[in-house]
Automatic annotation (TrEMBL):
SUPFAM superfamilies: Glyceraldehyde-3-phosphate dehydrogenase-like, C-terminal domain, NAD(P)-binding Rossmann-fold domains. Keywords: NAD. One of its GO terms (molecular function) is nucleotide binding. It comes from the Bacteria. Residues 127-236 form the GFO/IDH/MocA-like oxidoreductase domain. This is Dehydrogenase. InterPro entries: Gfo/Idh/MocA-like_OxRdtase_N, Gfo/Idh/MocA_Oxidoreductases, GFO_IDH_MocA-like_dom, NAD(P)-bd_dom_sf. Pfam families: GFO_IDH_MocA (PF01408), GFO_IDH_MocA_C3 (PF22725). It comes from Cellulosimicrobium cellulans. Residues 5-118 form the Gfo/Idh/MocA-like oxidoreductase N-terminal domain.
Length: 328
């Protein structure tokens, strides 16, 4: 079978990594790249840098990756859908849920594979965490808490920290728990002089009753990428920066004092750090997209899922603006 003809639009900080992986994976041939701003990282190789999505389509591509700024996702994705091109759009799916809805509908109506690049789902630590949670190793899940903070990335200009970083945590939380968000309450702040928020704290509840907490900011000199899932048998701690997964088991201490014997608390037990294969998340994501295009499997983040994540992100911003809890 001939390799899939792939195109990439957007050759910036994220696009350069997409270009590398598209060249590395089997069954895909990167035949065209486009960016109206040129090729700042020199990733085009022997390919001409095309000016726009129309020129990319004209190259006869079958699948595309969209890594342009969020504000352009809608127009670029709709053009690719109209041309019959299977597409992976970097997260978030679009700048607004209204635009995201148009994009998701266009790919669904065209019968095309449409995916959103929520790469954390393909992080080996989170994949191992979900596998173990799904197998019942944690028992009932009570809470999912995430911390995602670090310095401001100069590459971001068109969205705030909620839609850029916070969407990672919204998506991975619902995915790990296998339940959508039911409600959110949030606080944001603006400290960097930009028009968009650069810090947010969110509390939420999923439809299955799991409570959530998320700390996300661009104002910390300490980079942190942590997900903690607490349940009846202990807690999983996933560090997605290092792809490490650790289990903190509840200890069992017999109580001889009758007056407190009814108290159902926990104590510190064994701590286990798991060993498992750690593949690059972006490569795993691209392989999943390729296989979805070929009809072999379908474990990409769908555009419908990407749209739901964006709707939650907008609810977070609405909650902060109105000072109320938002029910989804």
């Amino acid at each position: 079978m001939a390799d899939l003809r792939a195109g990439l639009i957007g050759l910036g900080a994220m696009g350069r990594h997409h270009a590398r992986v598209l060249r590395e994976i089997d069954g895909v041939d990167l035949v065209a790249v486009a960016d109206p701003g040129g090729d700042p990282y020199g990733v085009s190789g022997d390919l001409d840098v095309l000016p726009d999505v129309d020129a990319l389509i004209a190259a006869g591509i079958q699948m595309a990756v969209v890594a342009v700024p969020t504000v352009f996702h809608e127009d670029v994705a709709l053009a690719l859908a109209a041309a019959g091109v299977h597409t992976l759009v970097e997260k978030p799916i679009a700048a607004t849920s209204e635009a995201g809805r148009k994009v998701a509908q266009a790919f669904a109506e065209a019968g095309l594979v449409g995916a959103v690049g929520h790469i954390e789902r393909f992080n080996p630590a989170l994949q191992e965490l979900r596998r173990r949670t799904e197998a019942g190793e944690l028992g009932e899940v009570y809470q999912i808490a995430t911390r995602r903070q670090g310095p401001f990335p100069a590459r971001i200009a068109d969205v705030g920290v909620v839609k850029d970083l916070g969407t990672h945590d919204i998506d991975l939380t619902a995915w790990v728990a296998q339940s959508p968000f039911q409600s959110v309450a949030a606080q944001t702040t603006h400290r960097s002089g930009r028009p968009h928020e650069d810090m947010v704290t969110v509390t939420g509840r999923l439809e299955n009753g799991v409570v959530t907490n998320h700390v996300v900011n661009w104002l910390s000199p300490m980079k942190e990428r942590v997900t903690i899932v607490t349940g009846e048998r202990g807690a999983f701690v996933a560090d997605t920066g290092t792809a490490d997964l650790t289990f903190y088991a509840n200890g069992v201490i017999p109580t001889e004092w009758e007056a407190v014997s009814a108290f159902r608390g926990v104590s510190e037990g064994d701590v286990t750090r798991y060993a498992f294969a750690k593949r690059e998340p972006l490569r795993v994501e691209h392989e999943a997209f390729r296989d979805a295009v070929l009809g072999l499997r379908h474990d990409v983040v769908t555009m419908e899922e990407g749209l739901r994540t964006l709707e939650v992100a907008e609810a977070v911003l609405d909650s902060s603006r109105t000072g109320t809890m938002i029910t989804l």
